[in-house]
Amino acid sequence: MRQSSLVVVAMRLPIDDSVAPDGACEWRRSPGGLVSALHPLLRQTPATWVGWAGGSGPAPSLPDVDGVRMHTVPLTLDDLRDHYEGFANATLWPLYHDAVEQPEHHRRWWEAYQRVNQRYAEATAAVAEPGAIVWVQDYHLQLVPGLLRALRPDLRIGFFLHVPFPPPELFMQLPRRAELLRGMLGADLVGFQRAQAAHNFAQLTTKVLGVSATDRRIAVDDRVVRIGAFPVSIDTVEMSALAGSPEVAERAQRFRRDLGDPAHVILSVDRMDYTKGIEQRLTAYSELLASGHVKVRDTVLVQVAVPSRERVGQYQVLRDRVEREVGRINGEFGRVGEPAIHYLTQPFDRAELAALYRVADVMAVTPLRDGMNLVAKEYVAARVDDSGALLLSEFAGSATELSQAYLVNPHDLEGLKQGLLSALEADPADVTARMRAMRAHLHRYDIRAWARSYLSALDEGGSLLHRLGGP
Ligand code: ADP
Ligand code: F6P
């Protein structure tokens, strides 16, 4: 077995399969932010990425992708049902997002969560060379740091949670709360999106495990676990360059024409998820149409909502409700050839997404709770002419950094309506000043800065990053 000095562990491998012209299956690097951030470093080491390749059969043996070794972890249909759809996405996901939907608890899901985490830990132990750096990602794998430390105490282990970490009153509902906390404490560094999450974690470890904790350090057995906030970001340069290209500018113009050349385009781009506040936004928009504050000929809403986790009941119910409401609003307020809402459930390629961002005078990002929300950052990066108003939920992690956005509380219907109107009617000079400040921030704190700050904190002595020249 080939071993690496740097190992990234995530539920999914960063690749997509596609069919080559000769009909053969090809694996390509997927366009995710994490892989873009780490790729320069992963390529130099060489490193290994441990994860699931999709499907439910035996793990395929994959070639290296762009110089990065792919180590596959097999998952069965039962694993997917009970670990991914069950414990990860019907217990932890709703609980970590303020329980906006009711979390479900089933012993069978917990058993699958343990079993799958054990499989990832064993796969990682097999590919990490002595003293390697291992970076474990997200809520699907919270037990991996502890399980891995038991197998390989020589490793330097990092854990990063991409989603919110809830306050004690919510986390305390989890029947297996102590095991989950102990799992995370197997890491040397536990990273969160926001300082509040690190604070919640510190409080919980004291309350549940009785250990001594501050918002920066937790004493566990004979070790110190460091914790902190490392807000994830995007490839700002790449998105700005794409959005600034003549092809994307031309595509944006065509989009505007196809939309009927309205005075205002409002855009929302979400996964179809109950945390994203899609229904609340539709209600606000419908009331603005009904009161005449917004007129169909003048303003269009483009709602992109790509289906997600479609086998989980709460996601099926949400999609039905959203589609019924879009139909109602279009039926009531649309005209022939002029729908009130352009509703799209398709995936878009990056250039089309950039063109949509460029056409949007107002970008409405109003989740009820979100770890970060990269869409908000992508919109800002795409506004190369410093125009465009970002309407942003206070409950998105990105609101901490993008404080010049038009901030709203999406639970407050009147506030949401007012926020939309303010963004639509804002003075262009105010819009530009806000956008400039946000763009300057994102150019400084991009995805590479994020990976560098996390990995240099994890690699305290600095030997790995120093040897490699940093990501
Ligand atoms: P989450 O991680 O909860 O899905 P984020 O906003 O942080 O939410 O990230 C969503 C990512 O998915 C962004 O990079 C965005 O560009 C991408 N995305 C969302 N909708 C689509 C779509 N219809 N087609 C292609 N990419 C999409
Ligand atoms: O942001 C949390 C997250 O789980 C990401 O890890 C993932 O890319 C995204 O949501 C989409 O979720 P899924 O992998 O379940 O499709």
UniProtKB/TrEMBL annotation:
- UniProt-recorded name of the protein: Trehalose-6-phosphate synthase
Q: Which family does it belong to?
A: Belongs to the glycosyltransferase 20 family.
One Pfam match, by short name? Glyco_transf_20
Which Gene3D superfamilies does the record match to this protein? Glycogen Phosphorylase B
Biological classification of the source: Bacteria, Bacillati, Actinomycetota, Actinomycetes, Micromonosporales
